[in-house]
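User: My instructor asked us to take a sequence, write out its structure as tokens, and then describe one feature of it. I'm not sure where to start. Here is the sequence I was given:
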Amino acid sequence: MSDIHSLQNLTVVVTGANGALGRAVVAAALARGAQVVGVDVHFEDGPSAAGERRIAVDLTDAAQTSAAFAALGEFAVLCNVAGGFAMGEPAFDPGENWDAMFRINVETMRNATRAAVPVLRQRGGGSIVNIGAVSAREGQPNMAAYCAAKSTVMRLTESMGKELRKHRINVNAVLPSIIDTPRNRADMPDADFSRWVTPASLADVILFLASPAARDIHGALLPVVGRS
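Assistant: Let's start with the prediction itself. The structure tokens for your sequence are:
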């Protein structure tokens, strides 16, 4: 009997592949037998892992994203990991942070998904996994722009889950709390890092949703909070 959690012989596209979570998803997908296409606006120097192909794309540019994805050939999974967080101004006047949070969290996801769905429909199905946020389930002080952007990702995930299931494309999202990254440790040096979600642990959940084991899950928003 085949392992329904395996990604053997499938091609997985990972956006934000140069970040801490993106690198963890790439490594976990390779460990599950996938071929991986890592997508980011740039990559640090150094060789890619065996089985990983890297392409530099500005995912905020819809035309550039569409052209890049059209050249990839067939793939089965899109993991929309690209995104970011920043504290902001008060909700009544979020300033430039509003556009920045929507650009990096929403537009990157929308452009990649718009380019990926025709490919997945052509192959007869596949999976899309997005990154929401536990904190965006409700408004937070001085985080209005981030919460609004991630809430938009979550609502789009639910809508696409209902729209695309008839095409055998399952669309779901993980909702992490604080991820144990070097940036978060630097920003919160007095926190108990052991309570945070590790990138490797979150990658496991993302790739479960990307695997055939999750084929009947559509539009789910799955909290992944560790002990935080």
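For the description part of your assignment, you could build on this observation: The chain has six helices and seven strands. Try explaining in your own words what that tells you about the chain.
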